[in-house]
């Protein structure tokens, strides 16, 4: 299901800002049409009458009465042309407005919103914790600078630039731990174009069959060249283009291009320090890229972070939870801050607690949870608003095998109903078993991506991973470990 419409949540209603659909033929503006037929000049120049297209060619020897008649004729034709031109333009405008409204309604519907308010376009954002205005307040429409995106590096930004003690999973777009819009009109990745991008409305067609056919990296290894699939492609729900991020002299992500299609269960694997967390943080709006763009369901994450985050559920790498709340309270706030009503949140909380085996822990402080329980409550918070895309950084880390199976089953059902999961993990077996697609990231670049079979070829995923990651290094000089100190 989609996130319920928050009363004051920003609504991506497309105003009539696109170039109206031109009437067929040589469409021109009313002014342009009327201009040639402007009142003839008093002198006998040929231009006006000729332009009007009807008056006889003036002659300098024509009598004054004839000239007056020609002038009246030209003026009448000009007025008539202007009127009919204006009428056509009105009709075209009306058609364009209707089309824009229809697209906006479709998009709003896909976002679970009602079309009632102007578009909110954020011009730039800083990674700062803040609490969004109450969702009942109308959002302020800010004119977007349509200048192409020019991303500014934030030199000292942490890997997970979420400085508050709340999980990004609960960092609802309209709630907390959000990137804060500022007046600094820097990072605008053509947000208005995104709003009406085709894939923004061509989403959420519930899929019956498992997702197939994902194209990804531009750096595909020859060995992993995929066989051509004849199955229809589902819409792209996540698109990374030229994503880059450095921390000082450390290049964490060196230009990633990736596409994830709807209904994919997509695994991201890579050695320690390969850039997985950095990439996922940029996808979810927690870390600003130095360059490149991220689109989620056609919405530019850094151009319109609030709209994008509304449809994303996040389990970040470093959990920062409001751990002085009980599990039930944390779930409750995660839900209501996402715009759900209390009854819905309670129902979903009970379902999630049962699914994750947290029923008995709901009334205990999260601070007292074990690592695995903490992971599970954070995961539950990421899911409670039923996002379209789940981005999970190491979701199974510390989770016991039984819970892992339960979580896996939940995620598989979610994917089967049209949701999309992107997760990172070091568990090659798990990725191979659970995911239908995988990308192997090494030193900030995607070295292979595609379906599991495409990437692993004749090998196991682990073998392929080790091969791409540079092979195993034999530990030498460790003999001292075998001569025990005591
Ligand atoms: N806030 C930061 N400041 C400086 N360097 C950072 C920061 N965050 C990440 N890095 C560096 O960026 C590189 C990629 O880190 P990242 O956390 O994305 O790797 P990873 O693939 O998630 O690793 P792991 O599997 O160990 O979790 C590493 O070299 C890391 O040291």
Automatic annotation (TrEMBL):
Q: Which UniProt keywords apply?
A: Antibiotic resistance, ATP-binding, Nucleotide-binding, Transport
- List, as start-end ranges, the regions of compositional bias called Low complexity: 21-42, 52-89
Q: What is the lineage of its organism?
A: Bacteria, Bacillati, Actinomycetota, Actinomycetes, Micrococcales
Record localization = Cell membrane
Please report the name of this protein according to its UniProt entry: ATP-binding cassette domain-containing protein
Entry's InterPro entries?
Answer: AAA+_ATPase (IPR003593), ABC_transporter-like_ATP-bd (IPR003439), ABC_transporter_ATP-binding (IPR050763), P-loop_NTPase (IPR027417)
Per UniProt, what is one GO molecular function of this protein? ATP hydrolysis activity
Name the segments for region: Disordered: 1-92, 202-231
**Source species, domain of life:** Bacteria
Q: Which GO terms describe its cellular component?
A: plasma membrane
SMART domains, alphabetized: AAA
What organism is the protein native to? Cryobacterium fucosi
Domain (ABC transporter) spans 238-468
Q: Does the keyword Manganese apply?
A: no
């Amino acid at each position: 299901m989609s996130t319920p419409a928050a009363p004051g949540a920003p609504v991506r209603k497309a105003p009539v800002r696109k170039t109206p659909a031109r009437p067929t033929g040589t469409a021109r503006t009313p002014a342009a049409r009327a201009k040639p037929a402007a009142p003839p000049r008093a002198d006998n120049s040929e231009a006006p009458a000729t332009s009007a297209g009807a008056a006889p060619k003036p002659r300098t020897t024509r009598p004054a009465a004839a000239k007056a008649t020609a002038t009246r004729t030209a003026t009448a034709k000009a007025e008539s042309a202007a009127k009919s031109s204006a009428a056509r333009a009105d009709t075209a405008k009306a058609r364009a407005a209707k089309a824009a409204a229809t697209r906006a309604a479709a998009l709003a519907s896909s976002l679970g919103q009602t079309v009632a308010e102007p578009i909110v376009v954020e011009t730039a954002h800083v990674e700062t914790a803040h609490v969004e205005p109450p969702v009942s307040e109308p959002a302020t429409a800010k004119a977007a600078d349509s200048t192409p995106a020019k991303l500014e590096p934030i030199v000292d930004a942490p890997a997970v630039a979420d400085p508050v003690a709340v999980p990004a999973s609960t960092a609802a777009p309209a709630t907390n731990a959000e990137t804060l819009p500022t007046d600094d009109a820097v990072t605008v990745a053509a947000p208005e174009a995104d709003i009406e991008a085709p894939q923004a409305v061509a989403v959420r067609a519930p899929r019956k069959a498992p997702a197939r056919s994902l194209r990804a990296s531009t750096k595909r290894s020859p060995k992993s060249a995929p066989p051509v699939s004849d199955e229809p492609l589902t819409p792209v729900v996540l698109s990374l283009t030229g994503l880059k991020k450095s921390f000082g002299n450390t290049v964490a992500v060196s230009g990633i291009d990736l596409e994830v299609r709807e209904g994919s269960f997509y695994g991201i694997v890579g050695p320690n320090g390969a850039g997985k967390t950095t990439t996922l943080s940029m996808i979810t709006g927690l870390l600003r890229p130095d360059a490149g763009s991220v689109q989620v369901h056609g919405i530019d994450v850094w151009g319109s972070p609030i709209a994008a985050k509304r449809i994303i559920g996040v389990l970040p790498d470093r959990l920062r939870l409001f751990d002085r709340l009980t599990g039930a309270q944390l779930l409750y706030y995660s839900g209501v801050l996402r715009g759900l009503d209390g009854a819905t949140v309670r129902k979903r909380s009970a379902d999630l607690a049962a699914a994750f085996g947290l029923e008995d822990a709901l009334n205990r402080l999260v601070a007292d949870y074990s690592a695995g329980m903490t992971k599970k409550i954070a995961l539950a918070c990421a899911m409670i608003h039923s996002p379209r895309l789940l981005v999970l950084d190491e979701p199974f880390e510390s989770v016991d095998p039984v819970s892992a199976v339960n979580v896996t089953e939940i995620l598989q059902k979610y994917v089967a109903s049209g949701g999309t999961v992107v997760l990172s993990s070091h568990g090659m077996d798990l990725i191979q078993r659970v995911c239908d697609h995988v990308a192997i990231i090494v030193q900030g670049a995607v070295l292979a991506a595609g379906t599991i079979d495409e990437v692993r070829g004749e090998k196991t995923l682990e073998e392929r991973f080790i091969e791409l990651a540079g092979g195993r290094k034999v530990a030498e000089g460790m003999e001292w470990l075998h001569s025990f100190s005591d």
